[in-house]
Amino acid sequence: MAPILEVKGLKKEFKGFALKNISFTLERGYIMGFIGPNGAGKSTTIKLIMNLLKKDGGEIKVFGLDNIKHEKEIKNRIGFVFDENYFYEELTVAEMKRVIAPLYKNWDDGAFNRYLKEFSLPPDKKIKELSKGMKMKFSLAVALSHNAELLIMDEPTSGLDPIIRSELLDILTSVIQDENKGVFFSTHITSDLDKIADYITFINDGRIIFSCPKDDIFEKYALVRGPKEILNTSIRQHFIGIKENRFGFEGLVKDKHQLNKMFKDGIVIDKPSLDDIMLYFTRRVQNV
To answer: Where does the record place a coiled coil (predicted)?
Structure first.
């Protein structure tokens, strides 16, 4: 079976920025977290997948189909959840549903009503009266009610309180129990991905730094702390980035299994967070 999402050699140039040969693959049954600093190319990549921008090169396939040649079929089978509300604010939840439902050939009213109940969404309330968290739940209800096989989410938990974020993550975990579905989740809140992601794709300055299983990342990378005196030119070359101050240093290494060869003692080794990894890749060296 073809991957649910496949991006190969994707290119897009703007003045002052470019996506440079972006490639990654998401299989069915998994959640992929898409991370990177602001301006790294996350939203541009999503717009290209959605055919909202014209690519300059490369290939995008969804369900094994070209995203341009088969755009209508693909968009019938995917759901979108963005950080902004794109619904008519003056309509109620029920009225908005009546606008959206005819757009999808697989729309299921029964499923939609179940999700309204499950998500505690009042059908007679206007969209503008919903909290941001409730709007996110409405977006999810719409996506799930036309049996979307792929959910594409752009910063869906941004600005939400921890309780609502946790509820949304639980919903996504439940969705992915259907191994025929997939979730592509772009976010800067990496702690959410620590909880639910199977794969992480990290983009920086228009380039993919890595795209691999989340567990592999934490198996390879390590945070190292110690006195500055043990750093020399040879040892520094093993670090992706180092922060130094008058008390010592902290740095990220890509291969923690090399640490015993590099240091005899005097260091502390910790598991990095995804935030730590992003920080050290983007800043490299920092003196405090």
So the answer is: none
Run means of pLDDT, 10 residues per run, the chain, 288 residues: 94 94 96 93 94 95 96 93 82 95 93 91 94 87 90 83 84 86 91 92 95 94 90 87 90 84 80 92 62
* 3-class DSSP state of 140: helix
Tell me how far apart the terminal alpha carbons of the chain are, to the nearest angstrom. Answer: 51
Find the length of the chain: 288
Query: Given this model, what pLDDT does residue 155 score?
Result: 84
In the sheet where 65-66 sits, what is the strand order?
Answer: 17-26, 5-14, 57-62, 65-66
In the structure encoding, which two tokens stand for residue 165, read together? 């974020």
Q: What number of CA atoms fall less than 13 Å from residue 234's CA on the CB side?
A: 6
239-245 vs 248-253, strand pairing mode: antiparallel
Cβ atoms 117, 54 nearer than 8 A: no
pLDDT of residue 248: 92
| 3 within 8 A of 26, measured Cβ to Cβ | yes
CATH code for the part of the protein at 221-287: 3.30.70
C-alpha dist (Å) from residue 253 to 166, 219, 283: 31, 11, 14
What does CATH list as the number for 5-212? 3.40.50.300
